[in-house]
Amino acid sequence: MRFRFTQTAIDTIEARRELLDLGAGGYVSFEGWVRDHNEGQEVTRLEYEAFQELAVKEGERIVADALRRFPVKHALCIHRIGSLALSDMAVWVGVSSAHRGEAFDACRFIIDEVKHRVPIWKKEHYRSGDSGWVNCERCAAAPSHTHEHEHEHEHRDEPAASHT
Amino acid sequence: MQLKIQYYALMREQAGRSEETIETSSVTPADLYGELTARYGFTLAREQLKVAVNSEFSEWSRRLAAGDAVVFIPPVAGG
User: Is residue A163 part of a domain?
Assistant: First the structure.
């Protein structure tokens, strides 16, 4: 499986081992961490949930796309679900390749696509005691932004929203 | 016909349940979303959602069949 979920801390040492290849000259990884603020609110923790059956299929398709588009050796993405504290790792992407350029490109492609396409949701808990589902509450409150939001989801070449 | 519905994230909280089996006369996922919004007061517009039938993305105009499993997918936020 080149895309999977875990309920416990992501083991990057073990994950990295799955990318080893005698023809690889290096590997690139991305770690998404829980940060203490988002859109002006102080965040204290996050909860992630996923529609796992479809999410794993879509995640696998993304990694397969990356392997088709970029001449890399191996790629893997692991996403955590459940309750996470500040600085916990929410997602890890690793790509090994003969040369570094395509490894950076493939890694960027995978994390951007995962953010846009995979049915995973996160609920932020704020210092104020309030909480909210990222990308959902504001849209619901402001239907006039529907189109803009849809745009963000449909156009894959745009940079990913900075919600990690 | 009977359909199995699963709810996630904001919609799970608004429906007050994570899944249910319902008897419905809705023909398409679009009809079904209207029916369930009338029941639970979902705040997301259908245009903001995607829908999956039997664990694969689907068109809103697909004809549903008895026993189908339907999941409405609110705007995602992985990473």
Answer: no
